[in-house]
Amino acid sequence: MKTKFHGIDLHKRYATIMIRDSEGVEIQFIPKCTNFKTYIESLSQNDSVVIESINNAFYWSDQIEKQGASCIIVDPHKFKIIKDSWNKTDKRDAANLSLALWMSEIKKEFKMPAIYKPLVQIRELRKLFAEYQMITNQIRQYKNSIQAIFVENGIALDKKTAYKLFKIDGDILILEKFNLSKVSKECIIISLLLTWALSEQKEIIKDSILDMGTLFEKEIKLCISIKGITPFLVLAFFADIGDIKRFKNIRGFDAYLGVVPTVKSSGGKTQMGHINRQSRKLARTLFTQPINHIADSSDFMKKFYDDVKLRRGAGRSRIAVIRKVFNIMRRMILTGVEYRYKDDQIYDKKLKEFEKIIHKAA
Question: What's the whole-number mean pLDDT along residues 292-301?
């Protein structure tokens, strides 16, 4: 049984800590703990700790649990609702956290709004994807800047010329064909060099992501049986969801991935809103790119896509197809059954490419 309840308000260089005993009485308050590592080393299996979700929360949670103590990471937005609903609250965040933890574990008055803590491997995968997405956005910004400079000079680049210019180590001599000012040409060259350098780094990160395919080898081999789905996309899917078995129902699964609209119901009227912007968005974003291939994966999926597009428009039809394929992947992973509309020729090609990656990473 836990005998001490620690509420920790983490900051960049120190932590504010409030400790309560099993009766809920404050027994120690540390306004500024600068040696947080030493403090953690003093914890044991009799201690229960709560911290808010910030950048380094997962790291410190791992260190706390290594000492045998339990650790809850709370969603600060949801915790604020609970905290503000109390008639009497301590103004110190650490005191509120420790009180909430004690009330949750001893009094059983409510459940702490804890966030999901993924395995270390999933967190590492998320880091790689975050870097990949950041570089992708930077490349897009530089390309848009280059396009804008051409437009300012009265030039509209065709797709073929743009491809030759933007690809890694593209043909910079193409610029000589255009009537550009000296400053415009210099700006374009600088942006091109940065674009090429970023594109090279993007490929390196993508290789690192694919190397982690060994963690989900079985699941990837199942999911790539769907046309348009690659090992890279499956890894993005798992980077978002972590453990697929933790979702109790499809609605919660879809809401977490941000592919269902928010619902507002009042006075007997129900209004459908936009998708939840606070949900995970990596998989949703990446799965948008091959949406036409996914829609063509079967006659059933094609009809579904066309029907929704006709009724609700292109944007909502894309989200509907992504939601559908997410649910199909979930069922395939849980049952171990391949996609019933699998194209054997395409699947065999993708499987061989993936096995090469696995062999290289081994």
Answer: 93
